Amino acid sequence: MPAEDEIMEEKPDIKEEVVPFATVSILQLIKEAQAQHGLRHGDYNRYRTYCADRLKRMRGAEKLTNKYKCVKRHKAKFERKVITEEHFTNEKVLHLMLFECERRWAKAMNDKTFLEDNPQSRRRQGMMMNLKRALHHATQMEALVRNSPRCDAPTKLEAQAYLVYLAGMVKFEAKQWVEARENLKASRTVYERLTEATHNTTLTNLYKARCREIQPQLRLCEFNSEETGAKVAKIGELMELRMQINDTESIDTLIAEMRSKASTDDVIEITFGGDKATVLDEKARAVILAWRQADKELAECQGPKEKMALYEKQLGDTRDALDKMNDLIRRKTAENADTEILQIVRSYLDFLRLSRTAERYLAMIESTKLEKKYRPQDLLRLYDSVIEIFKEIKEINGAARDSTLISAYNTRIEYYRAFRCHYMAAAYAHLGKPNEASALFTRAEERIKQAEKLVKAMDKNNAYFTEKKEALDDLLKQNASARALANSQRLSSALADSSKASVIDDRPLVETLDEWRRFPTETAELQKVKVMRLPPAPLPMPAKPVFFDLAFYDVQMPDLSARLARMEEDRKASQQKGPQKAQGGGKKGGKGAAAQQQASQQAAPGEEGGLSGMVKGWFWGKK
Question: In CATH terms, is domain 26-225 a member of 3.30.930.10?
Answer without folding.
Answer: no
